[in-house]
Amino acid sequence: MFKTISKRSQSKLGHFRSALLGAAALSCLSVTGAFAGSIEFWTLFSGPDGAAIDALVKDFNATAGKEADVEVKLLIIPWDDFNTKLSVAMASRKAPALTVVNSDQVPVYANQGALDPFTPEELTAAGIVQADYVPKAWDAGNFDGKQYGVPISIFPRSIYYNKDLFEKAGLDPNSPPTTGAELLEDAKAIAALGDGTTGLFFNLAGSGTFRNFYSIYWQYEDSLYNADMTNVSDTFTATATKVLTELKGFLDAGVTPTKDVGADASKLFAQNKIGIAVMQITDLPVYQAAAKDLGLNYGIASFPTFGAKPAVFAMAHEFLIPRGTNPEARADALTFVKWIGEHGVEWAKTGKVSPQYSVIESEAYKALPEQVIVTASIETAHFPAPLVNQPAVDRVVQQVLEEFYAGRTTVDEGVAKLAAGIPPALTK
């Protein structure tokens, strides 16, 4: 079944004809199953994020989308299942016209040949300007010199602190810890309150383990890897030992949970049972809701500095267009991407740092106090290396740290396991 090309479509395609597949492709069906004017959009956003992206899609469809003759059909897939389902869909050429992934997945999909890169011509035609984007977030969508992603948001690690517990512990509720030493001292003071109060929460399991490890590591050394990224750096052992020693200090002080409470951390924080929580800005809606409904009195601050310089782990959410999407569907997808960028303040309200200077510098964005605080940290943010095997390295680091936090591995043993496990993950 074929669709007659509208005048709007003909006009739009005129901008892309030289950059994409040419006029002959207009008579072909999209491999995504979406015809011109109607595009499928798969997203990993769920919970408050899911509700927010759903509202934005509906707004677009009712306004700018209607004017441009573009309809976005949203499918929300749970985060745990997302990459598996997207990979299968891409391999079978049944992928959507548009999707969004964490930036560490861009090299993976690009290396699989599952994506077609954006051309400068089509980005220009869509009004998407590279100079408007934070370089680190834009570069996170690049692989082997080709641009596959357009960032929608950035999410660095940060800390939330309970101002009521700070006051009870004799601490200044307006002075969150800025160094590792201050973090430990504040956590000790809060833990001393007793009654089941935990001074500090950080992940003992899951992805938060390696994200926190990298945040501290990069404060001492810029990279885990050697120059050609086939092995750990010459000074990896010394630096990793510093990081695990720092983390062990919190365990030895008894200021952290003895078992992973990641699923309940936000609830315990809202119940005034956790004084400081190392999380990321995407958790912000949970704390805002607790402040409104339960009277939680909290603050947010940048990730503390343990090492020689400030640094923090961050990633971006990147829009991608799967390989084989026809020219008109690509144009329609980029119309939506551009519109989302123009509504970046609304998206940032869900707990995001905007990757666009035009949004960050707007008065509406400056009126979001938590976002403004965390946005300052993007200057020192480090993104994972653009490696196909970076997720495999992350799994090695996560496994070793989980063993370390469970008391099954010492500092020296943990470092040795990291140094032995990372090189094979890089090269397999």
Mean pLDDT score, rounded? 90
Shape: globular
* Low-pLDDT sequence parts: 1-36
CATH class of the largest domain: Alpha Beta
Number of domains: 2
Strand content: 5-15%
Structural class, from helix and strand content?
alpha/beta
- Percent of residues in helices comes to 40-55%
Number of strands: 11
Please name the CATH topology of the largest domain. D-Maltodextrin-Binding Protein, domain 2
Based on the structure given, which CATH architecture of the largest domain is correct?
3-Layer(aba) Sandwich
Number of continuous helical runs: 20
CATH superfamily of the largest domain: Periplasmic binding protein-like II
- Span from first to last CA? 44 Å
Annotation keywords:
single chain; alpha/beta; D-Maltodextrin-Binding Protein, domain 2; nine-stranded mixed beta sheet; 428 residues; 11 strands; two-stranded antiparallel sheet; 2 domains
Write up what this structure looks like.
By secondary structure, the protein is α/β, with parallel strands linked by helices. The chain folds into two domains: 7-155 and 315-381, Periplasmic binding protein-like II (D-Maltodextrin-Binding Protein, domain 2), CATH 3.40.190.10; 156-314 and 385-427, D-Maltodextrin-Binding Protein, domain 2 (3-Layer(aba) Sandwich), CATH 3.40.190.10. Helices cover 46% and strands 14% of the residues. The chain has helices at 7-16, 47-62, 64-68, 79-91, 106-111, 120-126, 135-139, 163-168, 180-191, 207-220, 236-252, 265-270, 284-294, 327-342, 344-348, 357-360, 363-366, 369-375, 390-405, 411-427; strands spanning 38-43, 71-76, 98-102, 142-143, 146-147, 150-162, 198-201, 274-280, 298-302, 312-320, 381-382. Strands 1, 2, 3, 6, 7, 8, 9, 10 and 11 form a nine-stranded mixed β-sheet that branches. Strands 4-5 form a two-stranded antiparallel ribbon. α10 (207-220) crosses α11 and α19 packs antiparallel against α20 (411-427). The two termini are 44 Å apart.
